[in-house]
Write a structure and sequence with these properties.
The structure is a homodimer of 399-residue chains.
Chain A: E1 3-11, E2 17-22, E3 25-31, E4 44-55, E5 57-62, H1 82-92, H2 101-113, E6 116-124, H3 132-143, E7 149-155, H4 166-175, E8 180-184, H5 193-207, E9 210-215, H6 219-235, E10 242-246, H7 255-267, E11 270-274, H8 285-290, E12 295-297, H9 314-324, H10 330-340, E13 363-366, H11 371-377, E14 381-386, E15 389-393, E16 396-397
Parallel strand pairs in A: 1-4, 5-6, 6-7, 7-8, 8-9, 9-10, 10-11, 11-12
Antiparallel strand pairs in A: 1-2, 2-3, 4-13, 13-14, 14-15, 15-16
């Protein structure tokens, strides 16, 4: 039995408590100074100095396999379209040793530094790398001792139907442990929305895995594909197992159409992940919440051949979400932080994620007054506890 | 004579140099290790460890008088319209002791912490505070020993014509040293665009000061006011002395109209400041550059009764600008950093601002590879030198 006492921390900025962690789980929360006297048994004690405590962040949409993080600066090239970026990445990635175990580890370490203790990552599966990227990511996660929980989406970045053989790779990935299979712009990349979706749903239903689709298409073309997805989700009985990533069109629809669409998504049990780009249309997040459409936040890729942006800090994404949606009240600003933490849990299949007894001890300590203050300043992570392991101490990464 | 040797720093990420600073000015730049041997005379030496060096940042649009920075969290209230915010601020500011010397000083210190060594600040002038806010800001700047250069815009936040007596206050402020007088939505706040503009231009021409107008109006109503301003600027011979702040409409115009407008602004010598809000239309910044319309970046107010956002970091604003405008190449990412530094100089009337001999020694050191890396990570400011004074050392504020 290993144990850790996290003394004098303020969950969500509330009253100070002592948190007892045993074997990687939160075993007790007591008012500060009143924790059960287990000093003789406690192996380690951290003085939380009244720091604000949040549950570990959940990055619900990442690409940890494709970054050049840690390498010398790579200038952006290629064409700024989806197909242009796909082609550029396939042409250049070998030069930078992408994918690799070290590359994935570098990204996961940055996630931990910023307080992310669980992530759903899309990992490229194509005719070039086949399933090697997935193996690299799993090896990187293992090398970090499980500090960060990694859930895999086998992601056909280069297309599905237009690359014969990719469906077999997705099927194999699903058989070997990927939690979901991905998809990508069925209309504009594969030029066959029904064909791609039918093929993905067939695998998902047969293998009992989820589906997580990158959808960049705008307006009515985007919306039409949401309808196709919702119809197939209900038909296949995959409610609660299908996610749309990006889904820019949803924010662009006229109010009546948008409202119908949100209801259809809710009825089909579809969830939504966003990286809240500055130039995207705001999501109807209040209506989505009311309709039971879970929303998760992700960083997307960081420092890769798609974009030079990103540092792995999910709080920056939460702040971007808040600004994009014009959030200002304490309740709304707190909601944006919750999106980065509590509400992310379902995207990594956690039933118990939070500062509660029995949850995995994923805890982030920040020098902040309250959750809105955390959001608007995104201050340094003073301590990060991941599965009971101290991975950041006084702002310095320990892994 | 006081002197400081800043050894082994990389201007804009280039080759390492030693920077000699004498009496607050940069007196020499030599390849690292080859600086003139003046060790017996040098009072202070800082080992730059190869850190990247940038000129001090210039915050071209701030409100340092109206923040509650440093006070316990103030929940957002009021209505999210310009008039709603004006009314809310006037009703609540006394409760938080706004404006005050301490309040202004708290904001200026945050600016210094983040590398801003010069700012143009709008300071509320209205029938309630009269010129007290300006006096507070000047006293705060003096208390910081001139580390941060502060240029004042006497800003009629509560309106001009609709508040009889405000014009006299602006005239008095201009007489007493304000560099510019401000204006605010001549159409939608004063309900008399021609009347407000004529009155402001009369004062500016007579007192020899500039004009800096907050314009929030959208579309054609915004554009019409830009035309009125450009016409009056030329008529009054105030080319180079008039600035539009915000100016959201410019990005919203149809291409042909926008192009004509940019030309008209260029011919009238009008400059533009933006805080690059996530939900605004991108500016035609390349066309503005070609037409000779200077662009400056500002933080706007931080933590005030208008908005809980903001931490005074101009690099965050530069990154917001870059993302809003879809910048990705090294050249463009570097341009965004230049907007925060070099290109800001004209907004605080500096002819020589940069890492050059003779310039005021305003230098920011960051642990970064190059300017694009600075932009996308906005890392901690390791050292900030302001007018030759070390105001940040190892990330810690010294003033």
């Amino acid at each position: 039995m290993t144990s850790l006492l996290l003394a004098d921390v303020r969950p969500w900025g509330g009253d100070a408590v002592d948190v007892t962690i045993i074997d990687g789980l939160i075993s007790d929360l007591s008012p500060a100074g009143n924790s059960t006297d287990s000093s003789t048994e406690t192996e380690q004690r951290i003085d939380g100095r009244g720091l604000l405590a949040l549950p570990g962040f959940v990055n619900a949409h990442a690409h940890v396999d494709k970054s050049w993080w840690g390498q010398p600066w790579v200038s952006y090239g290629g064409q700024p379209t989806t197909q242009g970026r796909i082609a550029h990445e396939r042409a250049e990635r070998d030069k930078y040793g992408i994918p690799s175990v070290d590359g994935a580890k570098a990204v996961l370490r940055e996630f931990l530094r910023h307080g992310t203790t669980a992530t759903r990552t899309h990992v490229d599966v194509d005719l070039g790398v086949e399933l090697r990227g997935i193996a690299n990511v799993l090896e990187a996660a293992a090398a970090l001792g499980g500090a960060i929980d990694v859930e895999i989406v086998a992601f056909p970045q280069d297309g599905v139907l237009r690359r014969p053989g990719v469906l077999d790779l997705l099927d194999k990935a699903a058989a070997e442990g990927a939690t979901s299979i991905g998809g990508l712009d069925p209309a504009t990349i594969d030029r066959d929305p029904v064909g791609q979706l039918d093929a993905l749903f067939e695998i998902a239903a047969r293998r009992g895995v989820g589906i997580d689709l990158h959808l960049h298409d705008h307006g009515d073309l985007g919306a039409f594909q949401y309808e196709l997805i919702a119809e197939r989700t209900v038909q296949a009985g995959l409610q609660g197992k299908v996610n749309v990533s990006h889904g820019f069109a949803l924010g662009e629809l006229a109010p009546a159409r948008q409202s119908e669409m949100v209801d259809q998504l809710g009825e089909a049990g579809i969830s939504w992940t966003t990286v809240a780009p500055a130039t995207s249309a705001p999501l109807p997040f209040r209506e989505m919440r009311a309709a039971g459409v879970p929303i998760g936040l992700g960083t997307d890729g960081i420092r890769d051949l798609w974009s030079p942006y990103g540092d792995g800090d999910l709080l920056q994404i939460a702040r971007g979400f808040a600004r994009l949606h014009g959030l200002r009240t304490d309740e709304d600003l707190t909601y944006a932080v919750e999106l980065a933490t509590t509400y992310g849990a379902s995207f990594v299949h956690r039933e118990n994620h939070g500062l509660t007894v029995g949850a995995r001890a994923d805890i982030v300590l920040l020098d902040a007054e309250n959750a809105p203050d955390v959001l608007v300043r995104a201050p340094r992570r003073e301590y990060v506890i991941a599965g009971g392991q101290v991975v950041v101490r006084d702002g310095e990464l320990q892994v």
